[in-house]
Every structure is written in C-alpha cells, then in structure tokens.
Amino acid sequence: MDQDNPIIVALDCDNRAAAEKTVGRLGDACRFYKVGLELLTVAGPDFVRHLVAQGKEVFLDLKLFEIPHSVAAAVRAAGSLGVSMVTVHGMGGTGIMAAAVDAARAFPDLRILALTVVTSMTDEDLADIGVADSAEEQVLRLARLADAAGCHGVIASPQDVAALRGALGGDALIVTPGVTLPGDAPADHARPATPSAAMAAGASHVVVGRGVTRAADPAAAFRLVRAGLQP
C-alpha cells in the first residue's frame, strides 16, 4: 500500500454511473477510494474489481461485525478482489478481529483496520448502549484491543488521532473519516477536524467525501486538499 498517497476519496454514491463519473473527473490525481456499503450494494464487487484494474487502491469499508467464521470468509472475499484495506468493528471483540487478521494473511497487501467509535457518535450515544466511558476513552480501549489482536490500524475521528498515535506507536495506520474542508459544515460527524489538522496530529490517511465529490470541480478541490497537507 502506497502511504505516500494519504488522501482517500469516499465514493458515497447511490449508483455506479455517479461513482465512475467522480473517478473519471479526478483522473490520475487520486489513487485511493473508499467503497462503502451503499455503493457495494448497488454496484456489487465488479465495481471494486474495476477500480483495482485501473490501478486504484480500494478501502472497502464493510465494518464487519459477525461471528468469526463469517468475518474471516468476508475478509477472504475482500482480499480476492484486490483491495488494500477492509474494516472490522472493534466492538465485536478480540475473536472477530483476530479472525479477520488471520484470514488476511493469505493476502500480503491487505490491511485490517478496526473501527473504534463511529464519528457520528457522542458520549450520550455511547451511554444509550451501556458504555459509561467517554468516546475518547472507548476509542483508546478498542484501539488497544485491536492492536493486541494484530490489526494493522484503526478508524477513528480526527480528534482522537493524537491520543491514538501515542498509544499505538508510529507504525499503526490511523485512518480518519470525519474530516471537513475549511468552511464546510461537519455533516453527520460529531468530532470533525480539517484534513491538515488530522495529518498534523499523526493520521496516516484522511477520508474526504462531499467536499471533493460534490464540488463544482472535484479535481480542483482534491488539489486544494493535497496542497494543504504539504509541509
């Protein structure tokens, strides 16, 4: 996986044509895309193969939360598509995460990332499901559990990055959805920050969405994000 390209564009589209249009408009500038449940459901795995065949890297955001056997099977299916990253849910516990890691060993380029706390969730949301700790405390707990299970990294909000980098060390992948471009509204994210702030805190990758994909000129918007990450 090419870590010199830290920007992942989220293809949160409800049809394949829209996703292909976005990829076409970004051209060679963008090499890494996130495919989530919506696009995978409407376009199927063939679209993922299509991206990989174009030389793109794919972050397949499945948030797997099932019995270990089913999680392992899904990871093997993802690996066979040629994706670079796949997500499992940290709240599934050690058994699920370890099963995903074991299944990924057959695919040397596949990285398993554990979702910690969804970026839309607040302390109050966690309390609703019986988690008494704050979002920050829960993120760190699940990140340490993921690290012990062998995961290559975690998914967390930009505001959690600094604490995670301190807890996980320099080699872990820390991928941050929930980034917003300067001047944009935070949408559904409860703990946002700008891409440059996330990278400065120690993120390995930032996931950008509507600020790029719905811009009048997505390629120009992407260039602005990339320029903002330059030291």
TrEMBL record:
Q: Does the keyword Electron transport apply?
A: no
Source organism of the structure: Streptomyces filipinensis
Q: Does the keyword Lyase apply?
A: yes
Check the record and name the CDD domains matching this protein: OMP_decarboxylase_like
- Under which name does UniProt file this protein? Orotidine 5'-phosphate decarboxylase
The record's EC number reads 4.1.1.23
Choose any GO biological process term that the UniProt entry carries and state it. Answer: 'de novo' pyrimidine nucleobase biosynthetic process
Q: Which residues form the Orotidine 5'-phosphate decarboxylase domain?
A: 6-225
A GO molecular-function annotation: orotidine-5'-phosphate decarboxylase activity
Q: Which family does it belong to?
A: Belongs to the OMP decarboxylase family. Type 1 subfamily.
What the entry lists under Pfam families is as follows: OMPdecase
**Record key words, sorted:** Decarboxylase, Lyase, Pyrimidine biosynthesis
